[in-house]
Amino acid sequence: MHDAVLTATEPQVDCAGEPRRLRVGVLISGSGTNLQALIDRSAAGTLDAEVVVVISNKEAAYGLERARRAQIPAVWIDPATCASPAPSPRRSSPSADASCSRAAPGSGPR
Predict the structure, then answer these.
(1) Contact (CB, 8 A) for 76 and 103
(2) For 62-85, what is each residue's pLDDT tens digit?
(3) Count of the separate structural domains present in the chain
(4) I need a surface site. Which of 4, 20, 21, 77 has the fewest CB within 10 A?
């Protein structure tokens, strides 16, 4: 597996000109070891980003627990509730099936 590298062409700043960290959503389907690395680096200040949500297609993915322990909202989206398979990234559009965008009941932060 390859590690992801986050880059930005310009520094992120808020309306007062103060530095702002990149807000990142992470998609997982398993143990979340890469997620944990992002959480750890963000907390240590060696990654100019913060994980703000974690989404999984597997209810039992341990990465959801990692996110909850770090107080990051974590949701499971049940693929069975989607009316059709997820669209190809090449064909995704804002009109993608809305039923797939809802989290499964009880999957929010605990």
Answers:
(1) yes
(2) 999 999 999 999 999 998 887 666
(3) 1
(4) 4
* Cβ atoms 38, 47 nearer than 8 A: yes
For residue 66, is it within any domain?
Answer: yes
Distance CA 36, CA 25 (A): 13
User: Is 93 among the domain residues?
Assistant: no
Q: Half-sphere exposure of residue 43, counting CA atoms within 13 Å on the CB side?
A: 10
**What residue type is assigned to position 23 of the chain?**
R
State which residues form the domain around 30. Answer: 22-80
Give this prediction's pTM: 0.65
**Residues in the chain with pLDDT values less than 50:** 1-3, 92-99, 101, 104-107, 109-110
